């Protein structure tokens, strides 16, 4: 999940982080030189119901710089957009990071998000005869390329004594995957986010196997390295990240409000959204990255190398930047 439907995605704060974040002052136009910050425009990637929804809802969208939101539904597309200098800030999981590093993409990781791994699963049509993952041998399975879905599909196959060669894997985008599953052209779909409770709730699909215990729960916030040398840009990005962290902290303490705010945006009933928020296995917490994050991401890289989806072991640490470390409050 991406962040992320994601869920960066798709991904809340614990009480300890809450106290430090809520007491940490946000950067203000006065402390950051109003004229300098006012000249900055941040092009920010947001998943539906995420940044562009929760920041205004928590009263934290009074930025002393300009923010332009664009909506994405997978972290790999966000990384590609930053590489193309079309986006300045966005989030993704460890899986896009593996391909970012391997391709030498022009992207820098500036912060880590610890988040939930719920709502990541293999789903099947409600009337499917499949009762275990092994039942999917020789079946058609959709997945979202270079995302958490791609990664946990490989692990679930291995657990069942299978490989990608034992099924027909079909790379699809989020909307295409949903259409294919509902039309009966897929036997299963590896996916993430609110689409899972949506299709389970309407009775069209059921969860065959959850990826909750496969994924690490580490997600990353990336920034455009072309602009990182600019001090005003760094201050604006750090302020944005600190605001996002505070928004998650506030909403974690009021999940009913969280559900009410995002329900009409993602077009899922409020009761289902609230149930999903309450079921998340860990909160979102934004913090500076550490060496453990790199080691965890390396495990993901090694999985894709074993599958011959990445040819050589990249230098992961070169993707991580300390430029914002002194400015982050997590």
Description:
The protein has 330 residues and is an alpha/beta fold. The chain is 39% helix and 18% strand. Strand 6, helix 6 and strand 7 (168-171) form a beta-alpha-beta unit. It is built from twelve helices and eleven strands. The strands form three sheets. Strands 7-6-8-5-9 form a five-stranded mixed beta sheet, sandwiched between helices. Strands 3-10-4-11 form a four-stranded antiparallel beta sheet, sandwiched between helices. Residues 1-25 have low confidence and may be disordered. It has helices at residues 15-23, 34-38, 51-57, 75-83, 94-103, 148-159, 174-183, 195-201, 231-252, 255-266, 270-279, 291-306; strands at residues 41-46, 66-71, 89-93, 108-114, 120-125, 140-143, 168-171, 188-192, 205-210, 218-223, 285-287. The protein is globular, with a radius of gyration of 19 Å. The protein has two domains: 15-116 and 217-327, D-Maltodextrin-Binding Protein, domain 2; 120-210, Periplasmic binding protein-like II (D-Maltodextrin-Binding Protein, domain 2, 3-Layer(aba) Sandwich). Helix 10 packs across helix 11. Residues 1-34 form the signal peptide. This is ABC transporter aliphatic sulfonate-binding protein. It comes from Acetobacter aceti. Keywords: Signal. Residues 41-262 form the Solute-binding protein family 3/N-terminal domain.
């Amino acid at each position: 999940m991406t962040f992320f439907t994601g869920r960066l995605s798709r991904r809340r704060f614990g009480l300890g982080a809450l106290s430090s974040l809520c007491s940490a002052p946000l950067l203000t136009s006065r402390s950051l030189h109003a004229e300098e910050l006012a000249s900055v425009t941040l092009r920010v990637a947001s998943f539906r119901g995420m940044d562009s929804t929760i920041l205004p809802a928590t009263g934290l969208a009074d930025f002393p710089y300009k923010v332009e939101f664009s909506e994405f539904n997978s972290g790999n597309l966000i990384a590609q957009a930053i590489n193309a200098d079309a986006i300045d800030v966005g989030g993704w999981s460890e899986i896009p990071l593996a391909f970012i590093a391997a391709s030498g993409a022009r992207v820098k990781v500036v912060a880590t998000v610890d988040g939930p791994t719920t709502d990541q699963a293999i789903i099947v049509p409600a009337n499917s005869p499949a009762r275990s993952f092994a039942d999917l041998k020789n079946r058609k399975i959709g997945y979202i390329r270079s995302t958490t879905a791609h990664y946990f599909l490989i692990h679930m196959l291995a657990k069942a004594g299978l490989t990608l060669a034992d099924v027909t894997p079909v790379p699809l985008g989020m909307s295409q995957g949903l259409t294919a599953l509902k039309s009966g052209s897929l036997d299963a779909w590896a996916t993430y986010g609110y689409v899972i409770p949506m299709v389970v709730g309407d009775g069209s699909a059921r969860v065959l196997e959850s990826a909750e215990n496969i994924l690490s729960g580490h997600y990353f916030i990336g920034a455009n390295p072309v602009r990182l040398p600019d001090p005003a840009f760094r201050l604006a990005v750090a302020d944005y990240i600190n605001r996002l962290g505070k928004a998650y902290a506030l909403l974690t303490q009021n999940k009913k409000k969280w559900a009410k705010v995002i329900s009409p945006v993602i077009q899922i009933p409020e009761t289902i959204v609230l149930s999903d928020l309450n079921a998340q296995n860990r909160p979102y917490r934004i913090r500076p990255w550490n060496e453990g994050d790199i080691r965890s991401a390396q495990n993901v890289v090694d999985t894709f190398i074993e599958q011959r989806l990445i040819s050589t072991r990249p230098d992961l640490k070169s993707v991580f930047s300390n430029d914002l470390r002194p400015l982050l409050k997590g």
